[in-house]
Task: structure prediction
Amino acid sequence: MRFRSAGVALAAMAALITLPLGHGRAVAAEAPLSQGKTATASSEENYGTTAADAVDGDTGTRWSSATTDDQWLQVDLGATASVTRVVLDWEAAYAKDYKVQISKDAVNWTDLKSVTGSDGGNDTLDVSGQGRYVRMLGVHRATQWGYSLWEFQVYGSTDTAQPACGTANAAQGRPATASSTENAGTPASAAFDGDTGTRWSSQASDPQWVQVDLGSVQDLCEVDLNWETAYGKNFQIQTSTDGQNWSTLKSVTGATGGTASYDVSGSGRYVRVYGTARGTGYGYSLWEVAVHTGTTGTPPVQGGGDLGPNVIVVDPSTPNLQQKFDDVFAQQESAQFGSGRYQFLLKPGTYNNINAQIGFYTSISGLGLNPDDTQINGDVTVDAGWFNGNATQNFWRSAENLAIKPSNGDDRWAVAQAAPFRRIHVEGGLNLAPNGYGWASGGYIADSKIDGTVGPYSQQQWYTRDSSVGGWTNGVWNMTFSGVQGAPATNFDSGPYTTLDNTPVSREKPFLYLDGSTYKVFVPSKRTNARGVSWPNTQGTSLPLDQFYVVKPGATAATINAALAQGLNLLFTPGVYHLDQTINVTRANTVVLGLGLATLVPDNGVDAMHVSDVDGVKLAGLLIDAGSVNSDTLLRIGDPGASADHSANPTTVQDVFFRIGGAGPGLATNSLVVNSDDTIIDHTWIWRADHGSGVGWTTNRADYGLRVNGDDVLATGLFVEHFNKYDVYWSGERGRTIFFQNEKAYDAPNAAAVTHDGITGYAAYKVDDSVTTHEAWGLGSYCNYTADPSIVQAHGFQVPTGSGIKLHDLLVISLGGNGQYAHVVNNTGPATSGTSTVPSKVTSFP
Result:
């Protein structure tokens, strides 16, 4: 046995002697309210310095930000608290000037303390305020680095007082539905009409249910049931935020009918009584159901407001405008997996001698109603100097709604995937290759007019939709056009071109614009058999910004869902948003629009977003980044089994990109699942990372890129790469794809790892055997099996052979001989061979 030294023992005794009289034991140190709670930040330097590291109680871990002044760290205390003290333990990169703020909703903030001239180290601040969220808002850094905190500790007491339960019936007169009705005289609505002489009754079977839509998410405290003679013996009172996923507030067994009140605790928009065992031989029958809510609670989410810290709004008179572009580009040029997100918004007018170089996670858009309202006499440039003239990794950036008169006659837009060029008027030519004509692998143009010639040069593939070009010079493998005036004629037998005169169905992407001094979002209408640009007289509707919850970094998923439940649309400002619950879009015609590649990261295995099977939802401008715990599905459009007809008003998914790995370990079984009929997928890149951080056959496991279960789904501009199983699996009827680009997973360890059903390799594009009608144009799949170049994949495409299955202009390529394809589609088409990187083609199948 080892004994402590006498000095240590005496010191311990002295510490005990100093306890106040009357204490029988030592009192534990006060625990921070913030420790272990959910923390978010405006940015994170890397995946090893996350926001959570500042509230984990470990002084050996830290949060650090990007290297700009306007950065913040916030913690969600989980409940309203009275805050008395905040302790900041700075690392060497500290804030010279900063504020500590508090909020009830993570939207509206109040200053608790302003600090100027801090010297770093440990800052202990006595404060007084009430709220659920506390943050450090950096004003000025003390060093050339960002802000860095070992620990951010918030002390005080949690407000445990419960709101009083209201006497009003929140369910009365609200829309109601049921699993069944006995007859037309006993509808679901009769249980919520306030009339004890009318009733709902069900069919005589178990289970049965009746539910009501309260109209918004509310705090629930009591449910009253008034049973008719046919009562429920065993039942559950349940709640839901979306009408699909239910949680149980109260389980009741052995009930005897009559009237009864049940205290409950929870929140939701929908309430239902779910019967599992009847008390009689008849069905279930309720005279009335009353729902009571708390008289105090979360205030409604406000629409409108400013656009947040990462939106840079300029006009032609803005001082040092070129420097603003240069500063952001210097930060973002090579930040392929960084956390910075930026949106430039240019007010209408003429901008002279500007060269806006666009780096990673940077978007530039005009604020006019038409592209020609915002005139740049200069350039909007993407080049590849950061990558030695190789443009194959110029991802995640965009340009929209501008007119560009290039300084030397041609604008350079040398991009790869996830870099849309939309609604642009180029008063000259467009060069899609990097300086020096190095490798390039793009890309997408829509609703744009290029007066001169488009030169793809080294671009391997490209898709252009509903546009006008003065000419098109060449291309490497797969140049596909639909609805493009001036497009070259199809020559896929001997060249790269596939051309359709029209796009069967399209809708242009929603965009932010200024109506005078008021921000609005323009939502274009659906077009059929479109050809050429939609402007200057684009058909559609304008929505004022106050109909949008302007989501800023740090907003919680709960607040986002509350805004949706209130009927607000969403405008995500640039930032990275960690989600601890699924965002549920349940209302028809909801617009969810992202600026500056706003990024959603689902944490702890939740799905990022679900869209109900409703008409006309518009999702646009988002990057969904898989979290480190496996999500089943990153984005789901429509509920499983959805079957409603949305042909008159389809849901659209535009410039919504997916990433599994690369920025750190990411896991998701499915990336995008489409259950709703008639959905339009207009430009997506669904990417299981082949490089970056957290990359490996199991490290960033992701089985499927796109799964289509809905009927009459159209994909225009479909880029899907590197999944462990099928990149695209199509089960819906009458599906159509115009342009598909794919690479198989580089890191398949051997042929056995991708062998299934006696077939070597999962097809890049698989149409289920049950499908009778499907058609696609301009499809390419490339293999680059660097882990095992001996793999010979059976085919790039696998489809049924019925008369309704038609594929046009498809190819497979072995990139430098790293693996091969035995056939193009099924057992048809020549094999690839050697290292020549020459396409094997099928012009028409069957």
